[in-house]
């Protein structure tokens, strides 16, 4: 080849190389700009926490696509009638956009110039809030991707709850209807988010009935479940709830699909009530985001939050982050950095059934390859899954535990632990999974599971049961019982001021009797502001009762717990079985014979005195009978709502109202 030909060849090679790189760059840019699922995180730049540049660099390194931060009304209108986006907004919004992140600005909270610093409900306050939203939209035009109209209005976030209580649906939707058209006129390409509902489906249903879906681009919920113990606190329970929420929104939106976001979701890693280990939080994060891709209407989720708010490992609000205050990665941060690309840009094919409901296998297509995400939802258990390559290709693939380096593996294994006679099987391969997802990446066309084997998990240490001074006795039916006075022997847990005002506010007592086949419980309640519950399941928000039972097996090992909710509703007394050790389904149950005096309410409400009489069959607890000398652990709480929401509860024994933990129940002995 002569020199001219060589130069032409090299030039052509360079052009092709640059073209290929440009093509790869364009593909990467398209992937970054148009994720199938938006992953974000909450930052706290507005209150002055964290370093803007350093945090945003790490957020981008994690592969996240959005940040969410407050843009408080008070910071925009510092003097009445004078509005301007503060310098801080410019700083973190511009820095985020520079890194390709999509800012979500929260338009929220009160202003002391209007409605005495309460929720903006008056015509004047609503008009002032609209002017504030217009100011932020004018500043954010072309930069802010989403505006969220308020944050947890229904939960009273950012407000003085003792003075202003929780926000009502009617006032919220009125505000939304005033703000939405102005935001869309000033910044039409931005998405407007409404809701951030944190109290449950009742508030969501009400704002939908009032037309909220027509005045937003996305609905939003905050479905935290870290306070729930056991199955209710798992990512899988959260997923099942999201499926119900999707259908709920469709049902209350005239059958039309309405996209929604989860603008806050997270698990705090701290030592205390509702706390979890850092490793458990990381596993939950991985499963949450992977499962989110199975909900079509769910278009994005923001982890709360990015950076721990402090160093106190016993303080919940300081422990939600992916990183520590000095930006050292926590296990959840390692996992988020690993899975963000798959979740945001992968195509979720669906769940593969392997013959065991506790073993999850989700199949994705990502960057031209198959990815299987596998884990066990059975707390503390491990499962071995044996795969077979029925297509016979046996191509090597990669395996990694979420957040950890990958390794290259090839097909073939020998089940020598079952029998030394077993031979090497070149078309099979086995992997053992637990709570943290394993990720298999390769060509998996034609593979199938041929066995799922439960292995003994790591030994779980049971904490010693700590008995308080609370011990009660059950006597045979027909004999006089000694009532337990909750106002004297129990405690009051307060959510909001003014708290318990003594016996004139709320008092209660209970007593146990038993027959060989039934446990008989009588509860007497005096409440100066009794409120009817919509259902026993939601009785905790009114003046319903909650109780938990746990019996012991021979040798002192605890059995599963049984939790009941009791309420007087508009259609009469109702019992809801929330948790049961023998596998009965959750829901309203007639297995418990319940009578309440008075049994129904007139339009003026109920008298303040109620007597609840329960007959609980031995079969409800998986027992044949009750007899002298039996013992069980029990907790009872009486919820207290005086009209401004649940302000607290009077209880005997812990383990229900603040943390689901039967180890905190008190003791009952059958005499």
Basic shape: flat
The CATH architecture of the domain at 471-670:
Sandwich
Category by helix and strand content:
alpha/beta
- Could you estimate the helical fraction of the residues in percent? 10-25%
CATH class descriptor name of the domain at 471-670: Mainly Beta
Structure description:
This protein has 12 helices and 31 strands. By secondary structure, the chain is of the alpha/beta class. Among the domains are: 105 residues, Sandwich (Immunoglobulin-like); 200 residues, Sandwich (Immunoglobulin-like). The strands form 4 sheets. Strands 18, 19, 20, 21, 22, 23, 24, 25, 26, 27, 28, 29, 30 and 31 form a 14-stranded mixed beta sheet that branches. Strands 1-2-3-4-5-6-7-8 form an 8-stranded parallel barrel, surrounded by 5 helices. It has a 6-stranded antiparallel beta sheet with strand order 9-10-11-16-13-14, covered by helices on one side. Helix 9 packs parallel to helix 10. It is flat and about 75 Å long. The N and C termini lie far apart (105 Å).
Itemize the secondary structure elements and their pairings:
Blueprint: H1 3-33, E1 38-42, H2 52-61, E2 66-70, H3 73-76, H4 87-98, E3 102-107, H5 123-140, E4 146-149, H6 161-164, H7 169-186, E5 191-197, H8 201-209, E6 218-221, H9 235-251, E7 260-265, H10 278-292, E8 298-303, H11 331-345, E9 347-351, E10 359-366, E11 369-376, E12 382-389, E13 397-401, E14 407-409, E15 428-433, E16 438-442, E17 447-455, E18 471-476, E19 484-485, H12 486-489, E20 491-494, E21 506-514, E22 518-527, E23 545-552, E24 558-569, E25 572-579, E26 587-588, E27 593-597, E28 609-617, E29 631-641, E30 646-652, E31 666-670
Parallel strand pairs: 1-2, 1-8, 2-3, 3-4, 4-5, 5-6, 6-7, 7-8, 18-21, 18-31
Antiparallel strand pairs: 9-10, 10-11, 11-16, 12-15, 12-17, 13-14, 13-16, 19-21, 20-30, 21-22, 22-28, 23-24, 23-29, 24-25, 25-26, 27-28, 29-30, 29-31
């Amino acid at each position: 080849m002569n020199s001219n030909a060589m130069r032409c060849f090299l030039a052509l090679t360079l052009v092709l190389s640059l073209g290929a790189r440009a093509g790869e760059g364009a593909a990467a840019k398209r992937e970054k700009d148009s994720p199938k699922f938006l992953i974000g995180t909450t930052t706290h730049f507005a209150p002055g926490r964290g370093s803007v540049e350093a945090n945003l660099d790490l957020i981008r390194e994690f592969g996240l696509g959005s940040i969410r931060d407050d843009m408080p009304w008070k910071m925009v209108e510092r003097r009445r009638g004078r509005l301007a986006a503060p310098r801080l907004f410019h700083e973190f919004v511009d820095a985020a956009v520079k890194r390709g992140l999509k800012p979500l600005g929260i338009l929220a909270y009160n202003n002391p110039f209007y409605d005495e610093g309460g929720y903006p409900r008056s015509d004047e306050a609503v008009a002032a809030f609209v002017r504030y939203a217009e100011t932020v939209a004018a500043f954010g035009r072309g930069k802010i991707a989403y505006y969220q109209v308020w944050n947890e209005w229904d939960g009273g976030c950012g407000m003085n709850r003792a003075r202003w209580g929780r926000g009502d649906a009617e006032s919220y939707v009125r505000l939304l209807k005033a703000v939405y058209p102005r935001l869309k006129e000033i910044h039409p390409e931005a998405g407007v988010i409404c809701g951030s509902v944190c109290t449950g489906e009742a508030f969501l249903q009400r704002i939908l009935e009032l037309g909220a879906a027509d005045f937003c681009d996305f609905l939003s919920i905050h479905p935290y479940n870290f306070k729930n113990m056991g199955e209710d606190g798992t990512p899988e329970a959260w997923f099942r709830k999201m499926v119900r929420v999707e259908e709920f929104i469709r049902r209350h939106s005239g059958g039309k699909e309405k996209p929604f976001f989860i603008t806050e979701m997270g698990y705090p890693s701290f030592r205390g009530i509702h706390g979890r280990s850092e490793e458990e939080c990381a596993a939950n994060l991985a499963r949450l985001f992977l499962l989110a891709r199975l909900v079509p209407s769910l278009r994005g989720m923001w982890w709360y939050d990015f950076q721990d708010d402090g160093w106190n490992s016993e303080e919940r609000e300081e422990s939600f982050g992916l990183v520590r205050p000095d930006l050292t990665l926590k296990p959840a941060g390692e996992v988020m950095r690993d899975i963000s690309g798959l979740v945001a840009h992968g195509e979720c094919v669906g769940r593969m059934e392997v013959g065991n409901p506790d073993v999850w296998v989700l199949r994705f297509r990502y960057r031209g390859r198959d990815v299987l995400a596998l884990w066990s939802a059975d707390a503390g258990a491990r499962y071995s899954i044996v795969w077979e390559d029925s297509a016979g290709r046996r191509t090597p693939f990669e395996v990694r535990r979420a957040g950890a380096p990958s390794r290259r593996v090839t097909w073939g294994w020998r089940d020598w632990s079952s029998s030394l006679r077993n031979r090497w099987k070149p078309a099979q391969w086995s992997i053992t999974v637990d709570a943290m997802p394993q990720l298999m990446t390769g060509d998996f066309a034609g593979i199938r599971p041929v066995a799922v084997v439960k292995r003994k998990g790591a030994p779980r240490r049971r904490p010693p049961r700590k008995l308080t001074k609370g011990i009660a006795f059950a006597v045979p039916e027909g004999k006089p019982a000694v009532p337990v006075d909750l106002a004297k022997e129990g405690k009051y847990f307060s959510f909001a001021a003014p708290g318990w005002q003594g016996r004139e506010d709320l008092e209660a007592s209970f007593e146990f009797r038993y027959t060989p086949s039934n446990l008989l419980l009588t509860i007497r309640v005096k409440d100066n502001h009794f409120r009817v519950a919509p259902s026993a399941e939601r009785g905790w928000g009114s003046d319903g009762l909650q109780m938990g039972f746990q019996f012991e097996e021979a040798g002192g090992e605890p059995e599963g717990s049984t939790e009941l909710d009791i309420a007087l509703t508009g259609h009469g007394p109702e019992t809801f079985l929330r948790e049961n050790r023998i596998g009965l389904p959750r829901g309203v149950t007639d297995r418990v014979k319940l009578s309440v005096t008075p049994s129904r309410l007139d339009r003026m409400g109920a008298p303040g005195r109620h007597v609840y009489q329960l007959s609980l069959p031995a079969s409800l607890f998986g027992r044949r009978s009750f007899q002298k000398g039996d013992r069980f652990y029990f907790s009872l709480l009486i919820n207290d709502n005086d009209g401004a929401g649940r302000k607290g509860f009077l209880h005997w024994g812990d383990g229900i109202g603040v943390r689901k933990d039967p180890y905190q129940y008190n003791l009952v002995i059958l005499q």
